[in-house]
Amino acid sequence: MLPLIPTPSLNAPSSLSAELIEARLDRLPATRTTWKFVILLSFGFFFELYDLLYSGYIAPGLVRSGMLTTTTAGWFGMTGIASFIASLFSGLFIGTIGCGFLADRFGRRSIFTWSLLWYTAANLFMAFQTTATGLNFWRFVTGLGIGVELVVIGTYISELIPKHVRGRAFACEQAVGFMSVPVVAFLSYMLVPHQPLGFDGWRWVVIIGAHGALFVWYIRRQLPESPRWLAQKGRLTEADALTLRLEEIAEKESGRALPPPAIIEPIRSCVTFSAIWRPPYRRRAFMMIIFNVFQTVGFYGFANWVPTLLIGQGITVTTSLLFSSIIAIAAPIGPIIGLFIGDRFERKTMIVAMAATVMTCGLIFSQSTNATLIIAMGVALTVASNIMSYSYHAYQTELFPTIIRASAVGFVYSWSRLSAIFTSFLIAGVLKDFGTTGVFLSIGSAMVIVMTAVGLMGPRTRNLALEQISR
Asked: What CATH number does residue 391 fall under?
């Protein structure tokens, strides 16, 4: 294979432009190398989701060890499970809203690497904490790195992958990523109730996840910088050299010549971050803020609380972890379905339909006492949530121009992190006072708002060039 790191020269040909680079990228076929990039970024997402979602699965172990309690006397008590979850999302909020600009300034490739190293190191420190304060502090530091990574991976994929396979690329990323859920659920089932080698099982779950750092430098060597980002930064010679290599590889792997590029008329005005408050981005920004605030109630209100919700229905700790493990096996199914339908339906349509499914299945789950029905509804809710997840991760990266994409996505996405901080306390309080039924009534109400916002305000993006959507 040809090397994918361009060798810069001093001067760019006068015929080069960012619009030409972007048009050349969008005409590339989906070859083996295209999917290699997606898989490599997906591995980064795997370790990211492992770290993001193990909270709910190790929570019973943290309670059992005496470090945390299931609920606290006050809603904002700092020794309960809710404070542990809120610490993570506090870090995620700052990482997404305050650090998204780093990828716009320094590039997708380098920030992808360093943020992954950051949060794996923080996890190792957290695994050896013995107090609730230390646990929450290092969970917060972990969240900073994960917050940056969440923004960068989506931005990276949207810019490297041609328009006609963007939906499937995000579905692939989410499918690989959500394979971490059954892995962490199974490890928790096997380890959390025990103390292998005299070491709390939850600590082993955290340490195992931190080994993702071993793969970072391999992934980094295989990934190119985003040619779109290079072009928008005026580094046209580097962008051209890299795009030329990608074109040569595409022709070799597909066995046919590439069609002529279809250049999209550029945005004439200077685009800065403040542009998100001007049409057409203002409407999109408000829509995604509303969406992110309320989708969090449904997604993390279930994912981070599955074992605890089951215990609240009278199921033992060990059995709840077993049920959770079975439900978790379904996590990759939604994105796998997306590999076949990801570019056949509008992203906004999928988001609305899956929000309705989450609402319905959650309410049935809350009223169930039969083990089979509980698992079936848990599986259906998980599949729907994860179809919605890959759909909106693709959607929000498509709505803003390349030059501010990471910053804009980081800003609107940060509202889900802010929401999640309070959602963890909300779920704990509602569970304490109103039980599982109250939790899922809250989730259902949030999903109604999600459906209304996206259904009424969302533009169409399927099979459109990023630059066409941005015009």
From this structure: 1.20.1250.20
